[in-house]
């Protein structure tokens, strides 16, 4: 036995201990029983034993801790490990590459759990150098040089307003979804370009919701061989063909309310199967998908959609690899909807009214919503600035079948005008501040009392002028 010493950091002094050369640990856990000055190895010093006791009694939060929400819907549930196994992170289990499950829901101490970090630290995605386009798993450029990262750019946005048609209206020819800058000649269409990439690729166009990165229940259709083909629509691009994809002759089919859940669920299921590269989904995945679809279908805006553009590379084994993050177009509003369609006054029952207001006026209009419409009267100066405005009075019951409004004109700001005043009338939809175009002219007529008073003044001034002329003529030689 050899006496050695070590420095105790807790007490700030050297502590003697006996070194047993035959011990495999290099430390002796005991001294002579007759010794009055017991010494310990570093592994069995009083401070070390005290720390080990405290750590063993340490209570750690279980799997149901409110500070650690479950990761049931995390996109990183299945991660590829260094050794090729799969680490699944769930709400109650940790599964290593050998398939052994470690329950964590009721674990309160990790003192006796052995973890080999090579089994639980997810490895980076295994991508061959030829397929690594400068993206980390979070989608950002790895070298900080975004100029060399493939990306999609929308060249031509779709029109802001387009008529959504029901299937029963799709017989014969129908209008196509044009570009925002389209004219009678030339016409434009939604167009997207793939930048910073020089291989063959596929650009996909789908119909999505405006408030979620999720498919819409309506259908984006293209007419092919006397039949309507539903989205998604794919166009191949390459160095020879060019990298601009123009989607022409597309229409939007309005899905009836009773079929919303069915159509949306089918689209979401097809998309998930495609993303996971599987033939079918598990029972649990289908249940979660149904619950998610029910929530989305309940709040879906049926009069507003947008286009989603995606780019893919098709591998030799047939796998589709995303090249760039998807991009989304501006919102497309249903032209024929009372909530999003164009506002227009077709005809007025009369173009004039008194300055005192309360004259009955009937407006024939394009489709409006009785809960979301106002009739505005306004006056502009020579510079086009609004100098007066007021709103007509009417009730919801005064809106007749969404195509006529019976209202009372508002009084003009000046009740004593002695001439007609030219103003304008327009419709306003408060939900999106949409206004009818063009605004129609309307004239306010002065009160009859003011007109009579003006006539008397005009007549008296004329009489005095004529009498003065006669008097002057009398004095002429």
From TrEMBL:
This is Relish protein short isoform. One of its GO terms (cellular component) is nucleus. Residues 147-339 form the RHD domain. One of its GO terms (biological process) is cell development. It comes from the Eukaryota. Keywords: Activator, ANK repeat, Coiled coil, Cytoplasm, Nucleus, Repeat, Transcription, Transcription regulation. Pfam families: RHD_dimer, RHD_DNA_bind. Residues 23-46, 451-477 are annotated as: Disordered. Residues 276-303 form a coiled coil. Residues 23-41, 459-477 have a biased composition (Low complexity). The keyword Protein biosynthesis does not apply. GO terms for molecular function: DNA-binding transcription factor activity; RNA polymerase II transcription regulatory region sequence-specific DNA binding. It is found in: Cytoplasm; Nucleus.
């Amino acid at each position: 036995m050899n006496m050695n010493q070590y420095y105790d950091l807790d007490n700030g002094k050297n502590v003697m201990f006996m070194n047993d050369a035959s011990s495999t640990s290099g430390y002796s856990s005991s001294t002579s029983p007759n010794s009055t000055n017991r010494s310990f190895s570093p592994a069995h010093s009083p401070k070390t034993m005290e720390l080990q006791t405290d750590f063993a009694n340490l209570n750690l939060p279980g799997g149901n801790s409110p500070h650690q929400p479950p990761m049931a819907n995390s996109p990183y549930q299945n991660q590829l490990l260094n050794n090729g196994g799969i680490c699944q992170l769930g709400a109650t289990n940790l599964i290593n590459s050998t398939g052994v499950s470690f329950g964590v829901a009721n674990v309160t101490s990790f003192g006796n759990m052995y973890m080999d970090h090579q089994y639980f630290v997810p490895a980076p995605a295994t991508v061959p150098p030829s397929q690594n386009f400068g993206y980390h798993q979070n989608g950002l450029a790895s070298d900080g040089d975004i100029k060399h990262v493939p990306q999609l750019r929308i060249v031509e946005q779709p029109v802001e307003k387009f008529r959504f048609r029901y299937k029963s209206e799709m017989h014969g020819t129908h209008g196509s979804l044009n570009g925002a800058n389209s004219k009678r000649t030339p016409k434009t269409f939604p167009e997207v370009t793939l930048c910073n990439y020089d291989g063959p690729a596929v650009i996909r166009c789908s119909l999505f919701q405006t408030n979620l990165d999720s498919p819409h229940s309506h259908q984006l259709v293209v007419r092919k061989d006397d039949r309507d083909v539903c989205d998604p629509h794919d166009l191949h691009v390459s160095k020879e063909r060019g990298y601009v994809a123009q989607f022409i002759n597309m229409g939007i089919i309005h899905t009836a309310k009773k079929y919303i859940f069915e159509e949306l669920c089918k689209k979401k299921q097809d998309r998930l199967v495609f993303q996971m590269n599987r033939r079918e989904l598990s029972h649990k995945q289908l249940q979660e998908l149904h619950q998610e679809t029910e929530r989305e279908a309940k709040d879906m805006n049926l009069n507003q959609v947008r286009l989603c553009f995606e780019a893919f590379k098709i591998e030799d084994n047939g796998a589709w690899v995303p090249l760039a993050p998807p991009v989304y177009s501006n919102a497309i509003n249903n032209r024929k909807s009372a909530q999003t369609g164009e506002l227009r006054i077709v005809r007025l029952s009369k173009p004039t009214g008194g300055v005192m207001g309360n004259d009955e006026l009937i407006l024939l209009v394009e489709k409006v919503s009785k809960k979301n419409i106002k009739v505005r009267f306004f006056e502009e100066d020579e510079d086009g600035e609004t100098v007066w405005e007021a709103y007509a009075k009417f009730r919801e019951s005064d809106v007749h079948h969404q195509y006529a409004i019976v209202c009372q004109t508002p009084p003009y700001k000046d009740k004593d005008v002695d001439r007609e005043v030219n103003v304008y009338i327009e419709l306003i939809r408060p939900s999106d501040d949409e206004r009818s175009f063009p605004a129609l002219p309307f004239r306010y007529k002065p009160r009859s009392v003011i007109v009579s008073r003006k006539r008397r003044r005009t007549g008296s001034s004329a009489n005095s002028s004529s009498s003065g002329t006669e008097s002057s003529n009398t004095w002429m030689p």
